[in-house]
Amino acid sequence: MEFHRIQTNTVQQIIDAFTEQLLRGSLRPGDQIPTEVELAERFGVARNTVREAIKILVAMGVLEIRRPVGTFVCQGFSEPMISPLLYGVILGRGDSYDELMDLREIMETGPMLTVIRNAGEEEIATLSAPLVALGEACRREEPSVEEVFLRDDSFHEAVMALAHNRMVERIAATVRTMTHDMRYESVSLMLREGRAEELYQAHEKLYRILCDRDVAAVYEQIRSTYFVPDPETGVRSLSQPREERFCGE
């Protein structure tokens, strides 16, 4: 690996140098990096600056310290890598409800297509358990918002797990965290309007689509499971145009 002297004594430039080495393949997962003294000499900076950069890279899940051996490049995906993404999106999202919904749709559609392509019939059949639990929660005499929301979330989480991609699962979980409040509000509105069964049926249809491996139907049905507040209808599915009214209204 090659590290060049930097022009100014900045932590970010050291982090950028490590990033460049990783992209070039000069540093690989499992590699041990030089000591703080060696890095300070190569970069032409103080040891404190190197130490601070290493702390940040460790916090990001890029490096790990193995005492008393040394510091190494992490192997594979590490959950701390998601944290900067989460906070970056939170701080940059403003009040963009639509953008968050678009992000959620993208993060759920891709894995569902992967499930259709790769998951076995027995694997897809395991989704029936969280679906049944959602149905039971929706059909109680007085459905609980907390229970229905939890069962809804568990169903989508189970679908993500069938993609067998840890990074996708973690990012999807991050998106669910970011959209928690809007999703909770939607479930609450659906229950207040007595439409718990409609919420369940949307998910049941999605399950059937996965069982039938109907790729063409995935996109539209994903949107039909997203219920959003609407000033005219109270709440509507994203698959339904704003001007359209629900049956009976």
Sum this structure up briefly.
The protein has 249 residues and is mainly α.
Properties at a glance:
12 helices, mainly alpha, single chain, 2 domains, Four Helix Bundle (Hemerythrin (Met), subunit A), 62% helix, two-stranded antiparallel sheet, 6% strand, Arc Repressor Mutant, subunit A, two-stranded antiparallel ribbon, 4 strands, 249 residues
Description:
This protein has 249 residues and is mainly alpha-helical. It folds into two domains: 11-76, Orthogonal Bundle (Arc Repressor Mutant, subunit A); 81-237, Up-down Bundle (Four Helix Bundle (Hemerythrin (Met), subunit A)). 62% of the residues lie in helices and 6% in strands. It is built from twelve helices and four strands. The protein has helices at 11-24, 36-43, 47-59, 82-92, 97-118, 121-125, 128-138, 145-161, 166-178, 180-192, 196-212, 215-224, and strands at 63-66, 70-73, 227-230, 234-237. The strands form two sheets. The protein has a two-stranded antiparallel sheet. A two-stranded antiparallel ribbon has the order 3-4. Strand 1 (63-66) and strand 2 form a beta hairpin. Helix 2 (36-43) crosses helix 3, helix 5 (97-118) packs antiparallel against helix 9 (166-178) and helix 7 runs antiparallel to helix 8. The termini are far apart.
Number of helices, counting only DSSP H or I runs of 4 residues or more: 12
User: What is the total number of structural domains?
Assistant: 2
The largest sheet, given as strand count, sense and whether it forms a barrel, is: 2 strands, antiparallel
Question: What's the order of the H and E elements?
Answer: HHHEEHHHHHHHHHEE
* Principal-axis shape: elongated
CATH superfamily grouping of the largest domain: GntR ligand-binding domain-like
CATH architecture descriptor name of the largest domain: Up-down Bundle
Q: Helical percent range? A: 55-70%
What percent strand?
5-15%
Strand order of the largest sheet: 1-2
Low-confidence segments, given as residue ranges, are 241-249
CATH topology of the largest domain: Four Helix Bundle (Hemerythrin (Met), subunit A)
Instruction: Give the termini distance in whole angstroms.
Output: 68 Å
Structural class: mainly alpha
Task: Round the mean pLDDT to the nearest integer and report it.
Answer: 82
Radius of gyration, in angstroms, nearest whole number: 24 Å
Any idea of the CATH class of the largest domain?
Mainly Alpha
Number of strands: 4
